[in-house]
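User: For my dataset I need records formatted as: sequence, then structure tokens, nothing else. Please produce one.
Assistant:
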Amino acid sequence: MKKTLLLFLGLGVMAFTVFLSSCKEDEPVLDPASLVLTPDSASFTGVPGDVKSIQVVATAPAGFVSLKIDKTVGTGTPTVIETVNDTNGDNTETFTFTYTLLAEEVGETVVLTFDLEETGTAGATEQVTIITNSPPANRFTEVLLYAPLGDKSAESFFSTNTGLTYSPAEVNASSEVISDDIDFGYYYGVTDEASLASPAGYESTVFAAQVSTWSVKNDILFKSTTLDASAFSELSTEADIDEVFAAGADEGNIISGLIAGDVIAFQTDAGKDVGSKKGVLLVLEQMGTFNEGDYIKIEVIVQE
């Protein structure tokens, strides 16, 4: 009798176990949470102003809690820059994330972390690395600036905006305010010898008449440097120019006694917060004194 009872109990346990197993097999198996980024490149390199656009598909079948996007700059602390929720209630969210590269992040590595939180699971995480480089600077080669003439016909002045040279007569004859674009000019003085000066600087020299009728006389800050021609040739980015300018010695709005090989840093619109930019120039050649046809030849690299 006992053997029969034990047999029935054993059969019952087996039947219950089979029942439970069949119930578990009938329960749906959920896919794991997923994050799909398009393009799927793990890194992006650009310059300030470039925009990185990423198509994001976030899926959390067990329950979409939220998607947080953190930004870490260099070794700094991560900060949440955007939080995305499930707007349709289907545990899936598709959207385009955009990030604009910033000038203050030049030279830094920025890591964007996409962290999808899902109910009851570890969720999903993806990262994108962004490297911001300094933009290239503008370069103007073999700029000829001639010694001023009494009739104001010599092209003594230069604009870093246009890359062109101008004579005072050309500025005076134009219906446009060309003087607004002019940054500096050349003259040769008895004491100063070969010199560069801003239009505002010209007013304190014997050549003040060259700019006397201009409605705008831009100012500039020159800095002498210890660089040579070889070091100048290696400059290529706006960050390079910032570094050279920061290390230079202030010379005011006139720099004199120039000879071939001198490397001079400068800042246009000195003292202004808007429109000011920095540059570096190399004296390639200086010919003659203050006679017609005498000149200085320079090469200029300047920020946009």
